[in-house]
């Protein structure tokens, strides 16, 4: 059965019909599944600055150990494109749903094994080597997860609710941060002091086994994307080499789209990458209480979740581009205020500035699923969305904590970090201003010609065929 949906120009196109109940299942599955994936991913980042710098890289000395520990956080981002290339290719060739099941199990297995790893004192250099290998597997999985999740949500959505539906898997990211920070804060109470370093940090990693079982149960009953089903029913069955087509036809679009996410990710990874947690609790610095800092990060993740949802909903009414502009302006103020206020050493001020910052982060994040889906033609959309996101994560989030740590160590203060974050935000804003608003464009394969042109504000639209 098909239903009529309108494109950006008011024309109608046909798309397979999905019921309201199915759409709700898809949103629930992509949101919860993505939250589980990012719980695993962010858990490592949080523990990197609290535990791994001592237990896995301790012989390097405190300063170098912290930088190397954050390097392992960033290292996984270098392998996200591999996951994105593989997942994007197979999402365009065999479907979004199968890819999501594979990434879920890969991430869960790697995370659980980290919880079982011996420390440097037990097996020497093999401890950090095995840790890095498992972190790489997390990176491959994370690179493949996001694109398929957001397309499953957006391609099931009614045209006037793409932003709202697409905000579901986006909410999974701050939800993963909230869950990981919350579980770590709970373990800090259950296993305080030395007990946390001895065994308490391991429990959240092993908890991933239960979460993967929950994620599998939820995702197994979800139908494939209606857009992919429509493509697969045709003789051509999509592009034979979607990755090659993407880079041959849309490389400038990939770069600009990646810079949009980089503007958000650089700032977001101050908390999701564990830098704020390490900076605030450093015994040679602010020496704030670990549990209080983890609770502050957890609380700000709730704000991030809320405004991610708000951004998705607002973008359906104001457009993706206008919502991004508002968000980046708010984020710029938050980025400028972050470290000067964190430097006061007051936990309530820390919490307040993180809450304000996450308002901006949410407003530059909730609409991203819909915006990316509306950028690329149907036949290569899986590759376009996944690879653009992966490149953006390298340019933005990958080494942001490492760069911040090096700037603090090199300058003796945080002013350079503030400049770094504000600059990244303005780059994201500039990238958004280059793009036309394509809110509501028809997503089905019947509209490939429209989808292939008219991406940029300046210059003539070209036919990418």
Query: Mind describing the biggest β-sheet?
Result: 2 strands, antiparallel
Number of helices: 21
Query: CATH homologous superfamily name?
Result: MFS general substrate transporter like domains
Structural class: mainly alpha
Provide the spatial order of strands within the biggest beta sheet: 1-2
Helix-strand pattern: EEHHHHHHHHHHHHHHHHHHHHH
Explain this structure:
By secondary structure, this protein is an all-alpha fold. The chain has a single domain, classed as Growth Hormone, Chain: A, CATH 1.20.1250. It has 21 helices and 2 strands.
Q: What labels describe this entry?
A:
465 residues, mainly alpha, Growth Hormone, Chain: A, two-stranded antiparallel sheet, 21 helices, disordered N terminus, disordered C terminus, MFS_dom, transmembrane, membrane, cell membrane, MHS family MFS transporter
């Amino acid at each position: 059965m098909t239903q009529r949906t309108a494109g950006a120009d008011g024309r109608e196109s046909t798309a397979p019909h999905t019921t309201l109940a199915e759409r709700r299942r898809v949103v629930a599955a992509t949101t919860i599944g993505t939250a589980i994936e990012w719980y695993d991913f962010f858990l490592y980042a949080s523990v990197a600055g609290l535990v791994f710098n001592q237990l896995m890289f301790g012989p390097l000395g405190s300063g170098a150990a912290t930088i190397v520990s954050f390097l392992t956080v960033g290292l996984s981002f270098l392998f996200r494109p591999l996951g994105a290339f593989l997942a994007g290719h197979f999402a365009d060739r065999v479907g979004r749903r199968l890819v999501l099941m594979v990434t879920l199990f890969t991430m869960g297995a790697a995370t659980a094994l980290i919880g079982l790893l011996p420390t440097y004192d037990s097996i020497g250099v093999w401890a950090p080597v095995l840790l890095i290998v498992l972190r790489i597997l997390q990176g491959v999985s994370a690179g493949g997860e996001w694109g398929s999740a957001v397309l499953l949500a957006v391609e099931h959505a009614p045209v006037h609710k793409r932003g709202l539906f697409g905000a579901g898997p986006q909410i999974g990211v701050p939800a993963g941060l909230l869950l990981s920070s919350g579980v770590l804060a709970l373990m800090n109470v259950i296993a305080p002091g030395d007990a946390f370093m001895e065994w308490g940090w391991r429990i959240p990693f092993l908890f991933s086994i239960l979460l993967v079982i929950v994620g599998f149960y939820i995702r197994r009953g979800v139908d494939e994307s209606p857009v992919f089903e429509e493509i697969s029913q045709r003789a051509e069955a999509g592009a034979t080499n979607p990755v090659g087509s993407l880079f041959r036809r849309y490389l400038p679009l990939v770069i600009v789209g990646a810079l949009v996410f980089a503007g958000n990710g650089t700032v977001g990874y101050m908390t999701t990458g564990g830098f704020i947690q390490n900076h605030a609790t450093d015994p040679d610095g602010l020496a704030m209480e670990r549990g209080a800092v983890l609770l502050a990060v957890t609380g700000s993740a709730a704000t991030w979740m809320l405004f991610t949802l708000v951004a998705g909903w607002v973008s359906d009414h104001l457009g993706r581009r206008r919502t991004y502009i508002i968000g980046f302006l708010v984020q710029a103020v938050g980025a400028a205020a972050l470290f000067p206020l964190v430097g006061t050493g007051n936990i309530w001020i820390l919490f307040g500035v993180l809450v304000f910052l996450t308002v901006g982060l949410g407003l530059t994040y909730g609409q991203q699923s819909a915006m990316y889906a509306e950028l690329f033609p149907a036949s290569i959309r899986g590759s376009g969305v996944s690879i653009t996101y992966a490149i953006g994560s390298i340019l933005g989030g990958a080494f942001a904590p490492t760069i911040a740590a090096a700037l603090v160590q090199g300058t003796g203060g945080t002013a350079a970090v503030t400049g770094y974050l504000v600059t990244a935000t303005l780059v994201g804003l500039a990238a958004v201003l280059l793009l036309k608003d394509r809110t509501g464009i028809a997503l089905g394969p019947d509209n490939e010609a429209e989808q292939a042109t008219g991406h940029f504000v300046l210059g003539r639209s070209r036919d990418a065929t």
